[in-house]
Amino acid sequence: MIKAFKKMNSYLLLLSFMVLFANSSTCSYCGRSISGLYTILNNKHYHNTCYENHIQLSCDHCDKKITETYTETEGKNYHTSCYRDHIQERCAQCGQLISGLYNTKEDKQYHEACFINYILPKCDICRLPIQDQYIEDFWGNMYHEKHTNALPDCDNCSRLICEPLTGGGYSINGKRYVCSVCEPSVVSDQSQIARSLREVKLIFKKVGIQDLPRGIPITLVADKDELIRLSGNRLGKIRGYTQYEAKTLGGKTISETYHIYILSDLSEIIFDAVLAHELLHVFQIQNGYKLKSDIREGFCNLGSKLVYDHDGSNLARLQLRTMYESDDPDYGDGFRNMSSRLNEMGWGGILNNLTSFK
């Protein structure tokens, strides 16, 4: 948005004609004496022909002489009617003449009020014009920045939950929120988990990850604080946790148990990605891998990436973008490092060289 002001000056040109005797005056243009009819302008005398050919203004639109009030702008002169009808800016919205301040966009001019009411983008939440800072989310919604402080965002798609954007939503324990767009696809019942487990194992099989332990309990946790407590108060945006216990006798492991906990009410694709991450923790423990935390979590995030790439939806792309933009040293830096290695050597190379990564 650009505000501009075009300077226009209106002048009244006064002409006077008199009949005088010869040699009574000298022409201010040619310097010769004047006899007969002549013209006076600003106390200067001119032969009529000198005035008409050299002094009198011509309209820069119609090229005819100017003999009355005229308008001067940007170094050019116009009859008042020529300027009004052909030169003066008109609002591209309402078509009326523009005088004074105006706004311009893409080489078109608008009255300030027309620009605000019809050209400026409207907030997708309150429908008022956006004149100051605004946010455009992943889904193309534009809204005033102030709404982010007043509305909760969806735990899945990050949309602000409100009637105009999502058709509402619901709260989980007053701490997490799910919008009505994501609600139909959320995993909120234990009976839905078997489908996810089958889907993830099929995706893993294609890249050579097989023979994971059977019968691992997978429990939905509604309260994020409870999940954090189960994980040993881990920091960050935690969505899942794998608990491992081993019993030993005489220095030998005689039994191992795994238990995976995942937040409830995640969209199926996000739930599958979290499950893939946690199953790769099981894979590492099962194979006795002792990896640095950034390699460990970065590798597990490759499982999430595998699920998101396989899905290819906009929600999957949003989650992938969030993963790549994370500033967490393990889940962000570690993932980007492992993703780069995956691009270089593929899944076969990753699985064969995992323990050698530093």
Keywords:
3 domains, elongated, 18 strands, alpha+beta, three-stranded antiparallel β-sheet, single chain, 358 residues, Cysteine Rich Protein, 11 helices
Strand percentage lies at 25-35%
- Enumerate the spans where pLDDT stays under 50 for 5 or more consecutive residues: 1-8, 10-23
Q: Describe the biggest sheet? A: 3 strands, antiparallel
Query: Structural class given helices, strands, pairing?
Result: alpha+beta
Taken together, the total number of domains comes to: 3
Q: How would you spell out the order of helices and strands?
A: EEEEEHEEHEEHEEHHEEEHEHEEEHHHH
Overall residue-averaged pLDDT value: 89
Whole-angstrom Rg:
39 Å
Strand arrangement across the biggest beta sheet: 1-8-9
Terminal Cα span: 51 Å
Beta strands, count? 18
Overall 3D geometry?
elongated
Work out the helix count: 11
Percent range of helical residues: 25-40%
Keywords: Metal-binding, Zinc
Protein name: LIM zinc-binding domain-containing protein
InterPro entries: DA1-like (IPR045218), Znf_LIM (IPR001781)
GO molecular function: metal ion binding; ubiquitin binding
